[in-house]
Design brief:
Number of helices: 10
Structural class: alpha+beta
Amino acid sequence: MITVAITVAVALCTLWAVAALYFDVRRRAVRISAIFFYVLGLAVLCFAFPSFWARMLVCCAAFAMVLLWWLTIKPSNERIWPADVEHTAWAEIAGDRVTIHNYRNCEYRAEFDYVCRWESKTVHLSEIRGIDLFIVYWGSDWIAHPITSFQIGENDHVAFSIEIRKEKHERYSAIRGFFRGYELLYTVAPEHDLVRLRTNFRKGARRQGEDVYLYRTTAGPDWSRLLFLAYLRRINELHRGAEWYNAISSNCTTNIFSERAAADTFDPVPGNEDRKLLNKFDWRILLNGKGDKMEFQRGDLVTGGLGFEALKKQAHINPVARATSDPAGFSERIRHNRIGF
């Protein structure tokens, strides 16, 4: 039984090493050669050592060599980026006044037909009222993309979307997201950029716009400001130095919970009861298509007395979003007559 378990573990390590060479060796000719010699070398050495334990040791040593190489691959902010991820956001904080630089403001005619303006956005921390949560589906009901949006004053909103940063020649690959294929990006933008792109222009698995749901959270102004500051600290870190995206450990959802934990750490108010977005780990953080139900069960969403299915049904914003032609009124229109707004 032990030998079977070891064999399976070593086989998985070998498979990972081959996949790492395939996805993370950037030059095609070098990639093919590296995989060929890795597999050939293992076959020759395993044939040369008839002992089971010697073969396992050879495989582990080969895996360790690939892992050590893999860990040396460094992310970078200096690559050839498409226009919509050309810059990274960063913020200056001066007391109550926050200035967000490289605030993206794209106007879309189609998913890949757009003009991006990179602006500076001024926000006063004292005007932060609360947090709204968008959940975006493009295919499976088990996987989604969350967007966190902070309400500023009566009708202004600053949205954060945690994404991969693809180079100009790259296309998205879910498998590549498990390796070192993409840098991590926090896009800061108005909702008529981040959300309207998904409701009106992107095509999901059904060749329709991606399905987007909007919820009001129970977070009040104090805790919302703390979370906003946690996001700002994070975008400044990523502006100073790039980091890798990872589909398990550093993705669009796990980073949100990291910022929530950071907000709790920054909390200057003893006994603050305003922090209602809990941070306890749940399997739905990884299978995040069920994340809205998790938030509902934790009491993190304003429900208006509705059950989850009824709340989710009324949270679907696509019909209104598609009927809203004026980006300037987008945020107000998608909230009209919805629970919590």
